[in-house]
Amino acid sequence: VDDKEWQLMLAEFNQHFWLRRVPAFAKAWAACSALDPSLWSNELKQAIHGLAGVSALIGQDALGDLARHIEQLWDSEGASLPPKVQELADRLAIAECEYAAKTGSG
After folding, report:
1. What pTM value is reported for the model?
2. If both were cysteines, with which of 3, 11, 37, 77 could 73 make a disulfide (CB 3.0 to 4.6 Å apart)?
3. What value does the mean pLDDT of the chain take?
């Protein structure tokens, strides 16, 4: 869309995603990654939800799909969640590097 207001809004979503949502997830995952999933904090669940909510708006559909999938499995999968959350963390790191290279923000 060539609308300047829309482009500004998308730029703000991008900034919010990379500067707030991704670091919040990284912090929560660092605190929980060595724990049994039954002990994971609500902050991690909220961070994953936040990623799922904004990803599509900034063109990161696959990340959003993975985050939503993790949300759906959260209460029922237990032991199978850590590899999925680690996959999300790994894919976010790659996407963040690509974003930084594209925008010169790295």
Report:
1. 0.89
2. 77
3. 92
